[in-house]
Amino acid sequence: MTRALILGGTGNANALAAALLRAKIDAIYSYAGRTQIPLPHALPTRIGGFGGAQGLADFIREADITHVVDATHPFAAEMSRNAVEACAAAGVPLLALERAPWTRARGDRWIEVSDIAAAVAALPEAPARVFLAIGRQHIAPFAAKPQHAYTLRFVDAPDDTLPLPGAELIVSRGPFTREGDLALMRDRRIEWVVARNAGGDGARAKIDAARKLSLPVIMIARPELGERPRVESVDAVLDWLGHDARLGA
Ligand code: 3Y8
Ligand code: NAP
Predict the structure, then answer these.
(1) Per-residue confidence band for 249, with pLDDT thresholds at 50, 70 and 90
(2) Which of 160, 188, 215, 248 could form a disulfide with 210 if both were Cys (CB 3.0 to 4.6 A apart)?
(3) Where are the beta strands (DSSP E) in the chain?
(4) Does domain 109-220 have CATH number 3.40.50.720?
């Protein structure tokens, strides 16, 4: 019998969870526990790390998992690497559900960089008004350029002091809308946007809003992940699972 483990925490993963419920495919949803109150799920849900690749392999065996779907975020590189290693060790198939990266459209003013340090370097020296929409985990390096007026957006209110004194904080879980992000950028007179190439629709609003306002976007490229089977649609995952389920594997 099919029993899937969904490594979640994204909009795609939520859509997959709903589809698995409808298809009555037995599955467990997993969150890292990065945020205070993750979106509740109708699927049985576990929260927290597994304890590295070894811990994940043990979980797969103990929970009789037959298939693993990595529906985490393209920047969740450690989780994705652990999944490849753990599935090989436990001998269960792995499939990544991954949204395609955004590609530059006409009117986009992107400065493409490889990582957070390069994004900090790409900001101007002269004081500017910068929208950092990269979550809470990657803010500290921007303290190297304190001359800017930063607007931050987090999922949860921070429990400790910000590494960027004087920054304006917006607490919002998303998904975001183009109108909402246009209003945010106009109200805050944003001049620069820093984003990671998450792909998908839930984070695209700020990219579309920046294009409309002709603002430069410092776009951080995704980390390189090793070769692994990947699809971009929930239906493709269902086929991958449903096919085995139909064969009663
Ligand atoms: C805990 C689950 C849904 C899914 C909502 C999507 C869209 C909104 C866009 C901006 C960019 C960012 C961030 C973002 C987006 C959706 C989706 C998406 C980007 C939740 C969630 C978890 C997380 C973790 C969180 C990270 C953070 C990244 C904020 C839930 C809401 C910036 C990614 O404060 C922290 O520590 C936050 C950490 C990881 C930044 C980072 O370091 O990558 N996501 N986001 C997951 C877990 O515990 O396993 O809490 O319910 C999911 C969503 N985040 O419909 O509910 O399509 O995924 N999430 C980025 O760079 O794009 C926000 O502000 O414009
Ligand atoms: P990461 O750096 O790749 O993972 C670090 C560690 O967190 C992993 O080694 C694992 O701990 C644990 N972990 C990550 N995802 C997990 C999951 N789904 N279930 C159980 N444990 C998990 O990951 P990250 O960048 O911090 O992202 C953490 C989570 O937030 C991911 O689930 C990701 O999907 C989500 N996220 C969502 C978005 C978005 O835009 N929707 C953006 C970024 C991240 P152990 O080694 O102990 O197993």
Answers:
(1) very low
(2) 215
(3) 4-7, 27-31, 45-47, 67-70, 94-97, 109-113, 129-132, 149-154, 168-171, 192-196, 216-220, 230-231
(4) yes
Domain ranges of the chain: 4-99+225-241, 109-220
- ∠96-181-154 over CA atoms, to 5°? 60
For ligand 1, whether the C-beta of 139 sits within 6 Å is no
Instruction: Identify the three-state secondary structure at position 18.
Output: helix
Among the listed residues 149, 178, 198, the one whose alpha carbon sits nearest the alpha carbon of residue 12: 198
Q: What is the value of pTM for the model shown? A: 0.94
Task: Report the C-alpha gap between 229 and 94 in whole angstroms.
Answer: 7
- Which residue of 35, 79, 196 sits with most ligand 2 atoms within 8 Å of its CB, as the best mutation to test the pocket? 79
Q: What is the pLDDT of residue 92?
A: 98
Amino acid present at 180? G
Phi–psi pair at 151, nearest 5 degrees:
-115, 125
Q: Is residue 244's pLDDT more than 70?
A: no
Average predicted confidence (pLDDT) for the chain: 94
State the first-to-last Cα distance of the chain, in angstroms, to the nearest integer: 5
216 lines ligand 1 (CB under 6 A): no
CA nearest neighbour of 32 among 85, 80, 64, 98: 80
Contact 160, 169 (CB under 8 A): no
Instruction: Write down the pLDDT at residue 174.
Output: 87
CA of 76 to the centre of ligand 1 (A): 11
CATH annotation of 4-99+225-241: 3.40.50.720
Length of the chain as a residue count = 249
Nearest to 29 by CA among 49, 48, 16, 44: 44
pLDDT of the residue at 242: 79
